[in-house]
Specification:
Jelly Rolls; about 260 residues; about 25% helix; 3-stranded antiparallel β-sheet; binds 2-oxoglutaric acid; alpha+beta; 7-stranded antiparallel β-sheet; 7 helices
């Protein structure tokens, strides 16, 4: 059920167009996310032990989540408010193409400021949004455990202009502290970086990728087990229409294909 009216979603989409991101506070049920956290801790331990993560800096790991169990939750990925904003900024019929996590551990460091994708057309960076990340943490995010830092309003700038604005102090970084339940929707072209987790507890941040209907990202995919797919509603099935359907998830499959992540 929506928490926001159509008019409120319009305002949030306008804010997104200006800032390149918007945060919905206390949006998802904490109980649900605590179940994700329990499942994630098992996955993290396994992936670290088998060195099957994409390393995004010292003690910082990107891990694809299996589309099964608690992670295959259409109440999260097909949430009507979230999709209401995604559709307003990236058009009708978006494609869900990524379900993953970013986790800095104790000993992680500042990443270089970066974008997650190049401009759609070389030299034409002012295009409307075509690739969005929806991020929500599986814990509270404080200034101590590695808050995501982002500039505002750099998503529609040429990458060199954005970097110049950042370096000149015209586009400062903002640390986004979050409570469990908060969700951030962002254009992946905004300049941002991960920061050090100075605590002993991992700071997992889920990332769900939504693309414009016609955009294809070969570096990510969601393997959707046929049995899980059959249990989904029409909206969820439509979001996943371009994702491979598999008989089973092979979680022993090692490694991540999404290794080039900074532009
Ligand atoms: O996890 C974070 O806070 C940011 C990570 C990030 O920006 C990246 O790995 O591209």
């Amino acid at each position: 059920m929506s928490r926001y009216t159509a008019a409120e979603l319009d305002l949030l989409a306008n804010q997104f167009d200006t800032d390149g991101m918007v945060v919905l506070r206390r949006h998802f049920a904490r109980d649900t996310l605590l179940q994700w956290r329990n499942a994630f801790d098992v996955l993290l331990e396994h992936r670290l032990r088998t060195s099957a993560t994409a390393v995004r800096g010292p003690n910082r790991h990107y891990i694809t989540l299996p589309f099964a169990g608690v992670f295959a939750d259409e109440a999260i990925f097909a949430d009507p408010d979230l999709l209401g904003i995604v559709e307003r900024v990236a058009g009708d019929e978006p494609v869900m193409c990524q379900l993953a996590s970013d986790t800095p551990l104790d000993g992680s460091d500042y990443q270089d400021v970066h974008r997650d994708t190049p401009a759609l057309f070389e030299g034409f960076p002012e295009t409307p949004s075509f690739q969005l990340a929806v991020n929500f943490p599986l814990c509270d995010v404080t200034l101590d455990n590695g808050p995501f830092e982002t500039t505002l309003g750099t998503h529609r700038m040429h990458s060199s202009d954005a970097l110049e604005a950042y370096e000149a102090g015209r586009a400062p970084l903002h640390a986004i502290t979050m409570e469990l339940g908060d969700v951030m929707i962002r254009d992946v072209r905004a300049l941002h970086r991960g920061t050090p987790n100075r605590t002993q507890t991992p700071r997992p941040m889920v990332v769900i990728g939504y693309s414009r209907s016609w955009y294809f990202r070969p570096e990510v995919k969601i393997d959707v087990p046929e049995s899980v797919y059959q249990g989904l509603g029409a909206r969820a099935k439509r979001l996943l229409r371009h994702m491979p359907r598999v008989s089973d998830i092979d979680d022993n499959a090692t490694g991540e294909n999404y290794t080039k992540f900074a532009y």
